[in-house]
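chain below, 424 aa
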Amino acid sequence: MSPEPSEPSGAAAAVGERLAETSEVGAGPGEVTTGETVTAEPETVGDEVYLGALASLAGMGPARLGRLLGRWEPAEAWNVLTGGALTEVRAVARVSEQLGRRWVGDARRADPTEIQRRHEQAGVTVRRRGAAGYPARLAGDPEPPAVLFSQGTPELLEHPTVTIVGTRRCTRYGADVAFDLARAAAAHGVAVISGLAIGIDAAAHAGALAADGVPPVGVVGSGLDRIYPRENAVLWQMVAQRGLLLSEAPLGAAPERWRFPARNRVMAALSDACVVVESHADGGALGTATEAAQRGRTVAAVPGPIRSPASAGTNRLIAEGGGVLCDVEDLLVLLDIARTTPAPRDTAGAAGGVAPITDAVAVGILEAFDWMPATLEMLASRTGVGLGELAWHLENLSASGLLSRRGLWYERRAEAPVAGGGSG
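prediction:
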């Protein structure tokens, strides 16, 4: 299996949406014999069924789908394809003859209701722009997604929101800052949005999940069944279970490079403010900041050492007029949120006076550390404990002073008194 692509940055990020316009897919075996428009017959299924089917066609990016839906309703567009109206499809979608033939052939072989059934069985909802459940924050956007695929709780977007992004090649400093900012934001009623990439994104999601507050929102560049990167599988599943996952891509869609800049514009549009924690000089997170600024959102960056490549982009963003974010208080001011909720408890202190641990699962989790730092992924693999239960126990053990947490890592700090004798 060939490796999946990394996210684009720099110039690639700036033209990512256009890549969806120019990438083509080899033609399939379908024959097309007419260029005449086929009138749609009355249908008994909803628009979402045909939207899911249209979005599943090879090479169908947001811009192409938007042009088709600007000309036809979803059912009409599907019937035009299955009817073989190649000339009109090409003219409306602005695609090559090769890709147009591929669409016609694939549409003739596909069953839209079966595609919809697969999404329903996976717990994925198809949301059309303008329909119930479609995020109101995207309704007036200059580039609103024609369709969104979602898992989780869409009402989370009714909270204040902040997008926290940064480099995949982050430093320990950057991961710690992203974790702490996201945890504080979630504890104060803010939905943290990020892209579920490794590095800063993952630290932000983990921080939001660690708070006893609003769960996070993940916006991804693949189908919701194509976890990318695989290293974030447990984190991805926790966001889906406790928060909200969004994508413009249907089930099965691979994480193609052009999808990530498209995803970035969605994150920017959903946010009240955008915070870049660390970014290299040509980092893709700067593209998200640009998208946010173009939409009138507040943009801020965390300053870093001038000799650190991981802070070159954020320091330049500040030098060019972006806001400076140095601590949690700055974040709350940025979001115009009063500190009415207690800050997350600092668990770095000693574990003296800890009550005896009576829960066998908690004891097993402590023993899984073997006095070495471990990530959520490692602990899930070692213990077999379900994601929600594992997160709950880790929070309780941290609050008790038995664990400390920095960024994505947990570390055991003390022996736990175990009821009935022995030690954890």
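Residues 189 and 214 are 6 Å apart (CA to CA). The longest helix spans residues 172-187.
thats it, cya
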